[in-house]
Amino acid sequence: MKIFIDSADIEEIREANSLGVIDGVTTNPSLVAKTGRPFEQALADICAEVDGPVSAEVLSTEAPAMIEEGRRLAALHDNIVVKIPMISEGLKATRVLSSEGIGVNVTLIFQPAQGLLAAKAGAAYLSPFVGRLDDISEDGMAMVGTLLQILSNYDYDAEVLVASIRNPLHFLEAARMGADVATCPLSVINQLTKHPLTDHGLAKFLADWEKVPK
Ligand code: G3P
Predict the structure, then answer these.
(1) Would you state the pLDDT for residue 29?
(2) How far apart are CA 55 and CA 73, in angstroms?
C-alpha cells in the first residue's frame, strides 16, 4: 500500500518524508488555508520535497472552469494530480482532464456508486472519506470495502486512496482490505511508528548495556 501524507504544511511534509516511507501528498483547500501561505508557493515547495503524486484541488464548481483550473494546476509540475470534487460537474471535468492525460483524484466520495462513476470518468484516484462517515455514525471502512469489491469486478485503472484517516486502525484496515493508497495526517503516521513495548524494550537494552564492562 502506498502511503501519502495528508497535509499542505511543508515542515510536516519534510518530517514525514524523512522517514523514507512517503509516496505522495494530498492537500485540500482547508489544509492549504491552515498554512497561511499562497497556494502555488506551497505546491512548489511540496513538489520540490516529495517525488510522487501531489494532489491539488480546484475551487471552481462548474465543469468548464474546473477544466481550466485543472489544466493550470497540472502545468505547475509533472507530479501534480488535479483533485476534483465528486459532483456531476466534477465528473464532466474528470472525463476531459483525464482524456488529456492529466491525473485526476476524485475527492469527497461517500458512497461506492460515486466511486464507480468517478472510475468510469477516468479518475486515476478515488478518495473515499472514512473519518467523516464515521463522524455521522456510518461505517467508513465498510464503504471502502464495498468500493474495492465493486472495482475488483471490472477493469478500471483507478486506485482507491483512503482519505480522512483519523487513526491507526483506519490505516491497518485499509491495508488489510488491499486499498492502493492511504493518505494520513502526520499525527497518524507518527502513531503508526510506535508501540509501548518497543520503547520499553529499547530502554531495557540501553540500561543493560550500561552493565557491559567498558
Ligand atoms: O484530504 C482529505 C481528507 O483526508 C480530509 O480529512 O480529517 O478533514 O476529514 P478530514
Answers:
(1) 97
(2) 10
Rounded Cα–Cα distance for residues 45 and 115 (Å): 30
> Domain range for residue 164?
2-210
CATH of the domain at 101: 3.20.20.70
Q: Determine the atom of ligand 1 nearest the C-alpha atom of 183.
A: 4
Amino acid residing at 86:
M
CA distance 144 to 212: 52
Count of domains forming the chain = 1
The predicted-structure confidence for 77-102, as pLDDT tens digits, reads as follows 999 999 999 999 999 999 999 999 99
Instruction: Say if ligand 1 is within 6 A of residue 163 CB.
Output: yes
Q: How far is CA 182 from the centre of its chain?
A: 6
Catalytic residue among 2, 83, 92, 194: 83
From the CA of 132, give the closest atom in ligand 1.
9
Helices 88-99 + 63-76 axis angle, to 10: 40
Three cell numbers at 212?
557491559
The whole-model pTM stands at 0.96
pLDDT at 162: 98
Low-confidence ranges of the chain (pLDDT < 70): none
Q: Say whether 83 is catalytic.
A: yes
Q: What pLDDT is stored for residue 197 in this prediction?
A: 98
| Ligand 1 mean position, distance from CA 23 (Å) | 18
Is 6 close to ligand 1, i.e. is its CB under 6 Å away? yes
